[in-house]
Amino acid sequence: VVKAPKIVFSFKPNDTHLRLPYPVVDVSRHVPNPFQDADAFSTAYALAFPANLRGIMLSEARAIVKNVAEESKDWNQFRANLKRMERKATDIQREALALIEQQTGSLGVGEGSFNIDLTRDVVLDFSRLDEAARTFYAEIALRQIWNSLTDRAASLPGMSLERSTNEGAAKTTQRIAIVIDEVHRLTQYYQTDARTIIETMMLEVRQFGALLTATQNQTDIPDDLRQFGTELAFHTTIPKELEALSKIDPAYPWIVRHLQP
Length: 261
What we know:
Elements: E1 6-10, E2 24-26, E3 30-31, H1 38-48, H2 58-70, H3 75-88, H4 91-104, E4 112-113, E5 122-125, H5 131-154, E6 161-165, E7 168-172, E8 176-180, H6 184-187, H7 198-204, E9 209-213, H8 239-246, H9 252-257
Parallel strand pairs: 1-5, 1-8, 2-5, 3-4, 8-9
Antiparallel strand pairs: 6-7
Helix pairs in contact: 1-2, 1-5, 2-4, 3-4
């Protein structure tokens, strides 16, 4: 039996995951480069900043963000491109640009980017980022991991896994386990126009390994997203939670109500 490498997403300060015997990457210092993929950038932005403010629709702001990200290679250039657009913008567009500039101000962190080694255990520590940045960079990291898995699988027969980095290439048949605590950060604002990559991973991850998630409430994961092979639920009497469980099996609400705390 080959041990599956684990990539753990940790969001809480002093989290138990940080005491695992794995290397820890402080994502506030070493961030996944968000400018590799403008689509991923705009989706991560929409997940991190879902609210419509001052009448500005999220879809409008997201379209602007994608266009600016396509023309930018780093945060300095991103801000410069926003300023350049402001000079030719209408009043409504200026309001959107000002909002984007304000919202993305907290995202320009880190001393450099990092590559995740899919052959080794690692804990990604997002706890030193603010709330929006945690969601933004978690989505970016997940998309880069997924792209690496699917790219290297496509390059080899029989769905073997291959990882390519700037330092060279390595081949392995090892499977991988992706562990996400507080997964509600990515699923609670599930929308038709800004869907987390977790949706795809839940459907297709079995060919690569496993996706293990944890969250406080059953309803943190919308019904359309719930594609788990196994679910663990604990004592609850919350009506919304019981309703969600009943969609899996009518007996489950009765069972969880009678579990011990």
